[in-house]
Amino acid sequence: MRDSALLLYLVRHGRTHANTDGLLQGWSDTDLTPDGLDGVRATARYLAPVPFTAAYTSPLGRTRATAHEILTHHPDVQVSDHAGLKEFSFGDLELLPESALFSRVDPVDMFREVFEGTFAGLPGGEPAQVYLDRVTDAFTTIEQRHRGGGPVLVVSHGVTLMVYLTLHGAVPMQALANASVTVVAVHPDGRREVRAVGIDPSGHGDDVPDLPQDAAVAGDLAAHDATALTPPA
């Protein structure tokens, strides 16, 4: 029997040169690295059996490139971009080393305040509540467009995908790896069920550090099986 829920397949973009170099990326863009592209192609093969009905990306090149590779297995699926799916803006610090951020703020405190909507923003960046509002708007739009169910691909960014999970009570204890897959079922009654978090067909999760435990805002994972998920039809 076909699942009546809308199944959101949330994919973080592939590894980029900025990721490899430890630079803050945000709204800036760098290309996928060769191994990043290989990882995305592994994810694309993993997702090949999923009969996607639609696909969404942020307007940034790294998410579009990731979606392009995944959709080579789904040539009839149309892709749309939504500005609300962009990453959190690091403002004037973008494309600087991560140490430039850590010297200004405690990252645990900062991201907790981002998820709570209380962070004022970095110089040249956006306030957290503006960020949360646009991410919420993007996912609300996608959910409403596809109320009839079926699988939908959403390619976005690490913090943005974690915000979506956190806003609905599922707080990952580990950063999402590049090219990883997280699956959320949105039921007709509005209930959201996290079916899998951080499936890593690319193997890029090996060097993703655990988040500090006190970075959690609220809630627990509704389901966390990153090893034995068969993509639902």
TrEMBL record:
**Residues that bind substrate:** R12, H13, G14, R15, T16, H17, A18, N19, R62
Keywords, A to Z?
Answer: Hydrolase
Keyword Membrane found: no
Q: Which InterPro entries match?
A: His_Pase_superF_clade-1 (IPR013078), His_PPase_superfam (IPR029033), Phosphoglycerate_Mutase (IPR051695)
User: What are the recorded GO MF terms, alphabetically?
Assistant: fructose-2,6-bisphosphate 2-phosphatase activity
Xref: Gene3D superfamilies = Phosphoglycerate mutase-like
> Does the keyword Hydrolase belong to this entry?
yes
Query: Which residues are the active-site ones?
Result: H13, E87
User: Which biological process terms from the Gene Ontology are attached to this UniProt entry?
Assistant: negative regulation of glycolytic process; regulation of pentose-phosphate shunt
Task: Give the record's GO CC terms.
Answer: cytosol
Domain of life of the organism encoding this protein = Bacteria
Name of this chain's protein: Phosphoglycerate mutase
Tell me what organism the protein belongs to.
Cellulomonas gilvus (strain ATCC 13127 / NRRL B-14078)
Biological classification of the source: Bacteria, Bacillati, Actinomycetota, Actinomycetes, Micrococcales
